[in-house]
Fold:
Amino acid sequence: MTTESQPGLRERAVASLTAARTRTAALTDAVTDADLTAQHSPLMSPLVWDLAHIGNQEELWLLRRVAGRESLRPDIDPLYDAFEHPRAERPKLPLLGPQEARRYAAEVRGRVFDLLESTALEGSPLLDDGFAFGMIAQHEQQHDETMLITHQLRRGAPVLGAPDPDGPYDPPTASEVLVPAGPFMMGTSTEPWSLDNERPAHQRETAAFWMDTLPVTNAAYRAFIADGGYHEPRWWAAAGWEQIRRHSIEAPLFWQREGGVWLRRRFGVIEPVPDEEPVLHVSWYEADAYARWAGRRLPTETEWEKAARFDPATGRSTRYPWGDADPTAQHANLGQRHLRPSRAGSYPAGASPLGVRQLIGDVWEWTASDFLPYPGFRAFPYREYSEVFFGPEHKVLRGGSFAVDPVACRGTFRNWDLPVRRQIFSGFRTARDA
Structure:
């Protein structure tokens, strides 16, 4: 397909890159230089590392590999190689300071926009459909979510603000939905900016199963706590039980109990835990334990995607639960419009054809599945994006959270993390065999 037959492709690339940089600036301008260079948790990089890393990856892929230009700063490449230095060690590196990092990222972006004006978006796998530009927009938005996690871990007065969710609210009457047995098409071979682990499209078969209509809420999860869930080993995988005992975990991360009331810390604000929101900041082990306690289980990744994309009326898989149209504020809580999940029962327009709700946005949803390649997987454009993470060490999350931008979220998008992780914006829903 030629660029001329793709109206708006160049404009989409510019808009996606601009939206990402606007968000990056908001996240980094909100704090002092001291906060930018500090490490707020050994699990996370200093914010200033993310800022320069964003520019470095953009230069590497768009200016050097696409345009064939010389490096602007070859001396800094090793500092911003995510595989060369673990996060806990990055504060010790001779990183660019805040102002220098901003100037570097801005210079790269200016040259990238010049390149985008003059480059045909076709002729090579990196350029076809503007893939490389879309990949970089997604990369920056993923780091923006990472930086938002760092903001949540940061101690001190609140520096970020956003209105509370105000999307349509219409709780469903059914607590679970029956997903029929049979085949469906999983993954994609046509989504222009899809990443290698989403490809290729391939047929999967499932038995019939029941899926929660909504994500598990704070109120439901509190019942698990009240019933002694964190003190009963029979609900826990062995590694999960060891983890909560070693670290004395008794509730989701950022929760604390005072005077019989559960409170949480959310971006510097202490507030009562809201009953109707999806539970947030739970590990895979916690999600799995709750599901066992409830007499249910976590859905597999295949089941999650079928519940989200399969339309029984047509037999096809849609891009999103609601269809093929890009998400709007009527469909899902995405893009850091809010700094919290919406109430469970929001966004009826975002329901899948089967009636499952809030599959996109609000909270990442843990699945039962290990992160593995699809049949026919080919690493592109580099092994370190997906391939090096394949295996039983990482569990798959689906759906995106309120912190995910639409450019990095779709019905086929796959996220993954270690099952101990709790600082991420993770929740879950449960399933059972039919």
Summary: The chain has a mean pLDDT of 96. Residues 44 and 395 are 19 Å apart (CA to CA). The longest helix spans residues 131-153. The chain has two domains: 3-153, 166-434.
